[in-house]
Amino acid sequence: MARKELIGKVVSTYKNTVVVIVISLKSHPLYLKQVKKVTRLYAQGDDMRARVGDVVRIVETRPLSKLKRWRIVEVVSGGEE
């Protein structure tokens, strides 16, 4: 079974954890308008290459703590430099 991969933006960092927001667009079933949904995911970031504002690729993993279910694979691009 393939693991889910998502791309999102880092909004906060902790000791070994980063908070990533993933934005998805869905079409409303009745009004057919595009609705934006923002999901906050907690990811493991041991080496802490990711900083606030970076775009990262995260992959689903086993439960690491109460909230952490994701792991950073790579930093796609840096933030505002």
Structure description:
With 81 residues, the protein is mainly beta. The chain has a single domain, classed as Nucleic acid-binding proteins (OB fold (Dihydrolipoamide Acetyltransferase, E2P), Beta Barrel). 0% of the residues lie in helices and 56% in strands. It is built from no helices and five strands. The chain has strands spanning 5-13, 17-27, 34-44, 55-60, 70-77. The chain is globular, with a radius of gyration of 14 Å. It starts with a strand and ends with a strand.
Features:
mainly beta; OB fold (Dihydrolipoamide Acetyltransferase, E2P)
In one word, what is the shape?
A: globular
Strand order of the largest sheet: 1-2-3-5-4
Span from first to last CA?
38 Å
Low-confidence segments, given as residue ranges, are: none
Q: Class in CATH?
A: Mainly Beta
Radius of gyration: 14 Å
Work out the strand percent: over 45%
Q: Count of DSSP E strands?
A: 5
CATH third-level topology: OB fold (Dihydrolipoamide Acetyltransferase, E2P)
Q: How many domain units?
A: 1
Fraction of residues in helix: under 10%
Q: The biggest beta sheet, please?
A: 5 strands, mixed, barrel
Give the count of helical stretches: 0
Estimated structural class: mainly beta
What is the chain-wise order of helices and strands?
A: EEEEE
- Average per-residue pLDDT, rounded, comes to 91
Second CATH tier, the architecture: Beta Barrel
CATH superfamily: Nucleic acid-binding proteins
